[in-house]
Amino acid sequence: MTLEAIDGRGDDARGRAEAADMPLAEPAFDIFAEARRQVEICNACRYCEGYCQVFPAITRQTAFASGDLTQLANLCHNCRGCYYACQYTAPHEFALNLPGVLSDIRSDSWSRFAWPTGFAGLFQRSGAGIALALVVALALLFAAIAALPGEGAGFYAWLGHNAMVAIFAPAFLFPIAALAIGIRRYWREVGGKPVVWRDLADAGAAVAQLRNLSGGQGQGCNFEEEERYSDQRRWLHQAVMYGFLLCFLSTCSATLYHYLFDWSAPYPWWTLPKLLGVPGGILLVVGTAGLGWLKTRADPALGSPANWNGEMAFILLLGLTGLTGLVLYAVTGTAAVGSILALHLGCVLALFLLTPYSKMAHGFYRMAALVRDAQVKSGRVPASSGQARR
Amino acid sequence: MGTSDRDDIAETFDVVVVGGGNAALCAAMEAAEAGRSVVLLEGAPKFYRGGNSRHTRNFRCMHRGALGPLIDDYLEDEFFDDLLKVTKGETDEGLARLVIRNSEQCLPWMQAHGVRFQKSLSGTLSLERTNAFFLGGGKALVNAYYATAEDLGVTIRYEAQVRHVGLEGRRFTHVDVDIAGQRFRIKGSTVVLAAGGFQSDIEWLARAWGPSARNFLIRGTPYNRGVVLKDMLDQGAVSVGDPTQCHAVAIDGRAPKFDGGIVTRLDCVPFSVVVNKHGDRFYDEGEDVWPKRYAIWGRLVAAQPDQVAYVIIDSRSLPLFMPSVYPPVAAETIEQLAKKLELDPDKVARTVREFNDSCRDGDFRPQQLDGLATEGLDPPKTNWARPIVEPPFYGYSLRPGVTFTYLGLKVDGEARATGADGPYENVWAAGEMIAGSILGQGYLAGFGMTIGTVFGRLAGKGAAAHDA
User: Fold this and answer.
1) What letter does residue A23 receive in the DSSP assignment?
2) Secondary structure of chain A: what % helix, strand, coil (to 5)?
3) Which residue has the higher pLDDT, A204 or A385?
C-alpha cells in the first residue's frame, strides 16, 4: 500500500481526513471520494461478505483507485441487501448508502465510456428523451412504409425485405460498434487483462442465474420489500433477459431461413422464429411489466434518483417492443398489419439505437465487470486496477 | 403516534417484553408462538432498534459435528474452558453450562425464525469452528426477528421507553412507559425484562468507574441507559455483577461518542509502539496476539492521562492488520508525526529511538508469537519488536470503547428474576441485563448473543407458560 493510496481518501466533509497536505484525486468527481469513504468503512466491517461479489472484491484490496471503484460499481447489481443490513446508514453519522453511491458511479461510468461521448447521459436520465427517440423512429418507419413499395407476402407486403435490411443492418451494427468502444474504455479503466475461457464461463454462470440478486443464498434481494427478502426481481429480470434472448434468436433463425433456405416470412407457428419468438415476447412483456411495478415500490434513493425516469422509460420501451411483436403476429392477415408493423419496427429501431446510451447498456458492462472479477478471483491477476492516482 | 395507538395499548397483554434487542425478540417470538398476546417495547426509534445486537456479527455455539456454517466439533467442556479463561472463574457454572448446552439447539431455531448464516468472514478464520456468523451481521438478524415477530402478531412499539416496572410485592402488575413523549400504563400478566445495561448513561458510568469514564467512547447503542435496571434495583431486585465495572476495549480515538461499532477497532498495537500523551511507553505492546489483548488495552488506555494513547507504526506494518475506518495520520518523520498528533516531537522521537535501539536481529513473523523481543527496555516489548524506521510513519489515537456493563439482575435457571423476598412470581429477565452472572469479567466473542438467545427463549417460554 502506498502513501498516496491511503491519503487519497476524499472525505473531508466531517473533517476526519488527516491527509490535508496530500492532493486529493479526481477533484471533478466528488462521487468517487464519497464512494471511497463508504467502501473503506465497508472494508473495516465486512459483515456483508455473503450477499454478493462486491464485498469479497472489496476485501481483496486496501486502497481504492477510481478504476477500482468503477469496477465495484459495475459489479454491484443494486440488490440492496447491504443497505438494509447496515448499522451505519443514515441517520448514523457514517451515513452509508453503498447501493446509491455505486449506482451513481455506475451510471456516470456509462456516460463517460459511451461513444460518441455525451449521448448517454441524456437517455439514461431522460424518459422524455427516450420517448422522443421512439417517436422519431416510429415516424421514420411509418414514412418508410408509406414511401417504399412492398414486395412479397405477410408484412413484407408493407415493407419489403430489402428495405428492412437497409434500415436495420446499420441500426444493429452501429450500436454493437459503439458498445465495443465503450466496453474497451471500461476494460482499460478497471485494468482488465486478456480474457480466458474460464473467466467467461464464471461470469456467464453468474449472469445465467443472476447470482448477484440472489442474496447469496437464493432468498433474493431487498428491492421492493425493504428489510424482507424477495426473489421477485430476480425472476422478473430473468424473464426479461431470457425473453429478449429468445426474441433475438427468433430473429436470427428467421434470417437463416431467409438466406439459407430461401424461405421468407410469414412463418407458420411450428417454425423456429415463432416457437422462439412467441414465448420470448410473452416473457418480455410479463417481465418488464413486473420490473416496472417493482420499481414503483422500491426506494429511489438507493439507486440514482436522477435516472428513474430514463430507466422506467427504457423498461416500457422494452415491454412495448415485445407487446407490439406479439400483436403483429395476432393481426396476421388483417389490414392492421401495416400500422402495427410500423409500431413494432419503430420500437425495435429505437431500442437498438439507444442500446449503448440507455439502461440497455447495463448488461454489457455488468458482464464485463463479472469477467474482470472472475480474473481477479482466479488469482491470475492483481486485484488493483493498477491505475495511477494523482 | 395517534390516539388509536393509545387505545391499542390500553389493553392487557399476556406478556409485556421490555427491550427490543436479541433477547427481547427471542422472548417475544417464543411467547407469541405459545399463543400469548405479546407487546414489545423498544426504547429506540425504528432505525436504531435492536440495542447492541445490531452491532454483533456472530453467535458462539456448542456443536457435535458440523452445524450450519460451523465445522468440526465444539463441545461443552472446551466451550466452558474458554469461558473460564476470559472470566478468570467469575462465572456461575450452572447458568454458564445451561447456556452452552442450549446453544446447540438454538442455531436451527434461529434459522427457522429468519436468521441466515454465512461463512466465517475474511480475517476471522480462527472463529470458523466456534462462532456462526450472521449474513449481513447483527442488524440483518434484528430485521429478521422483527419481521418474524410481526408475522406472529407481536405488537411492537418503538420509542417506547419504560420508566417504571409496577410491582406489588413479588408480583408484576404493569409498566409505565413513555411513547413518543406521552406516558402510558400497560398492564400485563407477566413481564420479560431485556433492556440491556447502563453503559450509555455516562453520568452513571462516571459515578461507578470514576470521572475519567467521561472520556470513554460507547461502542454500541446510545439507548442502553439502565433506566429499567435502576428501577428494578431501587425496588429491591437482587443484582449480580460488579457494579463499578464495564467491558472496554481500545478503539480508534476518533470514533463517534456512541454507536461506532465494529469498524472503530484498531488491530495494529502488536506491530507498534504505543505512547501516552506525554510521549512515554507504558505497556508491552507485543505481549500476546491482539484478539487476546484488545480488551486489556481498553483498561490500560483508561488508566493513562486524559484516557488517550497513540499508536505509532512504520510503512512496513500497514498491510499487517485489518484496514482502519479512518485513515491513519501520516508523516515522513517521527517528529512530524508527533506534531500532527499534538505530542511533544522530541520526546516521541526519543521514545521511538530508544525502542529501535533495543530491538535485536531476528525473524519477524506477524502471524504468530515470534519471540522477537527488545533488550534492556522498560517496559519491554516481548514479540514483534521490529524497529520503526521505514517512512512514511503512521499514527492513530486510541481511546477506551465501552461494550457493556456487568451489573445486572440475578436470575435462576428458568430466567426468573429475584427480589428481596425470593423469586418474583411473574418476572423474567434476559440478555445483557442478566449476563453479569455468567460473564463476571472479560468477554468471549459471540457469547453475549448466546446468552441472549438462550435466556430470551427461556424467559419467553416461562412467561408464556405462566398461569395468570
Assistant:
1) P
2) 65, 0, 35
3) A204
pLDDT band with cut points at 50, 70 and 90 for residue A148: confident
Is the Cβ–Cβ distance between B294 and B250 less than 8 Å?
A: yes
Closest C-alpha to B5, from B245, B209, B179: B179
Q: At B430, is the secondary structure helix, strand, or coil?
A: coil
Which CATH class name applies to B3-243+406-465? alpha beta
Inter-chain touch A50–B136, beta carbons under 8 Å: yes
- Chain B hits for A87, CB-CB cut-off 8 Å, are 54-55, 137-139, 259, 261
Contact assignment for B138 to A87 by CB distance below 8 Å: yes
Residue A218 grid cell: 437464493
Q: Once rounded to an integer, what is the mean pLDDT over residues A269-292? A: 97
Measured CA to CA, the distance from residue B344 to residue B336 in angstroms comes to 10
User: Looking at this protein, which amino acid is placed at residue A354?
Assistant: L
Range name among A18-32, B244-258, B331-345, B363-377 with the lowest pLDDT average = A18-32
Domain ranges of chain B: 3-243+406-465, 249-401
How much is the average pLDDT of B33-47?
A: 97
In degrees to the nearest 10, what's the CA dihedral of B417, B423, B425, B428? 10
CATH of B249-401, one of 3.40.50.720, 3.20.20.70, 3.90.700.10, 3.40.1050.10: 3.90.700.10
For residue B193, report the phi and psi dihedrals to the nearest 5 degrees: -100, 120
Q: Strands B13-18 and B38-41, how do they pair?
A: parallel
Residue of A9, A83, A87 to mutate for B, most B C-beta atoms under 10 A: A87
Cα–Cα distance for residue pair B416/B432, rounded to 1 Å? 15
Is residue B88 packed enough to be buried (19+ CB in 10 Å), middle (13-18) or exposed (0-12)? exposed
Residue B226's SS3 state is: coil
Q: By CA distance, what is B138's nearest residue in A? A: A85
Residues of B in contact with A215 (CB under 8 A): 135
Q: Report CA Rg, chain A.
A: 23
Lowest mean pLDDT among A182-191, B161-170, B196-205, B241-250: B241-250
**B2 three-state secondary structure:** coil
Report CB contact under 8 Å: A49, B139: no
A-chain residues near B340 (CB < 8 A): 18
B113 touches A at CB < 8 Å: no
> Angle CA(B198)–CA(B204)–CA(B208) in degrees, nearest 5?
100
